[in-house]
## 1
Amino acid sequence: MKALRLTKIGEPLELQEVARPAVGGRDVLVRVEAAGICHSDVHYRAGTSPVGPLPQSLGHEVAGVVEQVGPQVADVAVGDRVCVHYLLTCGDCYYCTLGSEQFCVHGRMIGKHVDGGYAEYIAVPARSTVPLPEEVPFAHGAVLMCSAATSFHALRKTRLAPGESVAVFGAGGLGMAAIQLARALGAFDVYAVDINADKLRLAERYGAVPVDASQGDPVAQIQRLTDGRGVDVALELIGLPQTMRQAVQSLAIFGRAGLVGITDQPFDVYSYTELIGKEAEVIGCADHLRHELDLLVEFARRGALDLSDVVTDTVGLDAAAVNEALDRLERFGGQVRTVILPTGSGR
Ligand SMILES: [Zn+2]
Ligand SMILES: [Zn+2]
C-alpha cells in the first residue's frame, strides 16, 4: 500500500510503498477515507516535538471503513464506518482501569509513536474505533478526533453547567469547536477572544460574542460585558503565559480556568485576589477520553457541532500537496484545515 512517511526530521514527507499492516486478533484494518493534517504534524516534521521511530507514517486524525477484522473482534464488522481514537492504550494499567486512559503507562499515539493514517490502510485495536454515522462526512469525523475532542474534554473538566458563561481564548480550530460545544451544553453567553478579525467573525457566526484583544485589554472587555461579574469558565487554547493570565483574571466567583494550550513558560497568579478570595480554580486539561468521542460524534450528527467552516481544503495522498499543506500551516498557523482523502471520496 501507499503511505506518506517521515523518513528524516526536517525533510519533506515521502510517498512510499509499504506492506499493509498486520491485523492482530483484536485489531481491525481500516481503509483510510480521511486523515486530518494537524499542527502537531508540522512539529513532528520539523523536529520540535518528538516523533519516532522513523520512518513513520504521520496522521493521528483518521476516519475510514473497516476492511478486515481480527478473529477475536465481536463488536466491529467489515464495512463499518469508523473514526479512530488516536491513543493506543493497554486497558489494564492503573490509569486505564480508572477510565483515565490518557495517562496509560503504555500509551502510544498513532502517527507519532506508531504508523498513522497518512496511508491507504491503518490497523488499530477494535476498541480504538468509534462508530461514524452516515450523516457525518469522513473528513469531519477525522478532525473530530483531535481538536474538537480536546475542547470537549476541557469543557467537561471545567464542569460547565447550563446557564453559565464561557470565555474562549483563541478562536482557531479548537476555539470554534469549544464555542459550539459550550452552547450545546447550555452556556448562555460565550465570549470569543482573539486578535484576528476573520476568526472573530466566524466565532460570531457560531453564536459567540467577539472580544477583540487587539482593541484593548480583553479582561476589561469581559468584565464590562458581564457587568463586572466575570465568566464561570475560561478556556485558554493558545499556549501563551499572557492569555493564561487573562483567562484567570476573567473568572467570576467560583470560576474555573481550563488550560489547554501548551507552553514551557510560567505565568503569574495572585493567589489571594484571583483564586482564594473567589474560590476559583485553575485546571489542566490534557487530551481526551475514548468514551467522550461517541458523544462528540453524536453532537456532530445532530448538527450541534458543524465543522464545514473548519475543514477548508482537501488533497489526495500526494507528497507534494501534503508537504505544501504542512508548509502553509507552518507559515500561517491553524486558520485553515486540510484533510487528506486517499480514495478521493470523503463522504
Ligand atoms: Zn491533531
Ligand atoms: Zn494502560
## 2
Amino acid sequence: MTPLATVVSGPRARLFACFLRLGTQQAGPLRLHTGASLAAKNYYEVLVLGGGSGGITMAARMKRRVGAENVAVVEPSERHFYQPIWTLVGAGAKQLSSSGRPTASVIPSGVEWIKARVIELNPDKNCIHTDNGKEISYKYLIIALGIQLDYEKIKGLPEGFEHPKIGSNYSVKTVEKTWKALQDFKEGNAVFTFPNTPVKCAGAPQKIMYLSEAYFRKTGKRSKANIIFNTSLGAIFGVKKYAAALQEIIQERDLTVNYKQNLIEVRADRQEAVFENLDKPGETQVISYEMLHVTPPMSPPDVLKTSPVADAAGWVDVDKETLQHKKYPNVFGIGDCTNLPTSKTAAAVAAQSGILDRTISLVMKNQTPTKKYDGYTSCPLVTGYNRVILAEFDYNAQPLETFPFDQSKERLSMYLMKADLMPFLYWNMMLRGYWGGPAILRKLFHLGMS
Ligand SMILES: Cc1cc2nc3c(=O)[nH]c(=O)nc-3n(C[C@H](O)[C@H](O)[C@H](O)COP(=O)(O)OP(=O)(O)OC[C@H]3O[C@@H](n4cnc5c(N)ncnc54)[C@H](O)[C@@H]3O)c2cc1C
C-alpha cells in the first residue's frame, strides 16, 4: 500500500511528529511478554475478559493492586490493534502495520495470558468457560469484550468485499480496501454509510468522508465526485456545538447528507447499494457507487447477549457512575461492551479505567465506591489531512473540553494530537495503566485561565 505523502506542513510540526513516532516505535520491545500460557491456573483473584483497550489497561492497573501472578487476561487474538488510527489508514495517511502489535507485547509482564475465547459466563458460580474446555474461577471479574461487528446483517456482505470499490475502516481485513477504492476512484458517487445500531466511535463513519473529499481535491478529481453520507441517524452529530461546525463544513464542501437512510444490501458485482428509508419502512432506494465505505451494524458480543450479566439489550449492565455490575458486586464492566450511556471510544475507556481502578480498590476493602464517571468521551473529528475538530463531551452531551480554546474550530495542532500524540499515549501510558484521561490537564488549563 502506498501511503499518501506526508501532508503536515512546517518544520516544527514535522519535528514534533518525528519525535513522537520515534517514541512510539521504541516502546514495544522493552516489555515483551513471554507469550500465552499453556499451563494456566484455574483461579485468579482478578480475571479480565478481553485483551483490547479496556482489558489490557485494567490488567496493568490490577497488576499494581494485587500482583501480576494474581491477574489473568482471556484473549484469543495474536495481535492487539490501536483501532482509532484506522481512520487514517483508510485514507492512506498511515500504514496498517503501525496500528498493531503482538498481544504478547502488551500483556503486562507476569500477568497470565489465557489465549482462548470466552464462551460462557457463570457469575452465580464466579467462573467462566473457554472454547478450549477450561473452567476458570475468579474473585473479581472485569468484562472488556468490546463490540461485535455484524457485516453479515447487510445482504451481500461480507463476501461483497471481494469486489473492488468497497471498503470499511472498521475491520483490519477491510481497512486497506478503503484506501484502494479511494485511489481507484475516477468519477461518480462516493457513498458513506452509518448503520441503525449503536457503533464505536460514532464520528468515524463521517471522518472518512471528509478525508476522501480532501483526497479528491488533492488529486484533481473533486469536480467528478458526488459525495453522499447516508446515515440512519436524524442528525450529523449528537453534540450541538460540534454539529453546527460540521454543518458549515458540509455546506462549504458541497457534501450531500441524507438522514434516516439505512444500508440493507450491497450488490458489489453491480456497484449498487440499497438503502431503506427508516421513516417509511419498506421504502428502498438503490444508489450506484464508484466507491462505497461501509460502517457495519454492531451489537454486544454473542457470548454476552444471553448471559446473566447482560441487560435486556445484551450489554453488560453496570452502574453508570462506578462501573460496578448492578447485580453482581464482584463483576465490573469497561468500554464498548457496557451499557454506559456515552459514546463508545478509546478515550472513554481511558477515563473509565481511572474510575474503575478506584471502584475496585474500594470494593476490595469492603468499602463503597465513591468516584463517579461523568461519561467523558472524545471524538477527534478528522476533517482533512491536517485538520481536526476535537469533540469532548459528557453524559449530557455537553462539551467537556480540555484545551483553553474553541475546540469546534478545525486545527492542525489537534490533527497532530490525533495522528501522533494519541498513539504514543496509548501504547506507552494507557496500556500501562498510567493514563486515565485528560481530566487533570483540563483542571490545570482552566485553573490557569481563572
Ligand atoms: C475506525 C475506528 C475509528 C475509531 N476512532 C476512535 C477515535 O478517534 N478515538 C477513540 O477514542 N476511539 C476510537 N475508536 C474506538 C475505539 O477503538 C474503541 O472504542 C476501543 O477500542 C474500545 O475498547 P474495548 O476494550 O471496549 O474494546 P476492544 O479494544 O475492541 O477490545 C475487545 C477485545 O475483546 C476480545 N474478545 C471479543 N470476544 C471475545 C471472547 N468471546 N473471548 C475473549 N476475548 C474476546 C477481542 O478480541 C478484543 O481484543 C475507533 C474505532 C474504529 C474501529
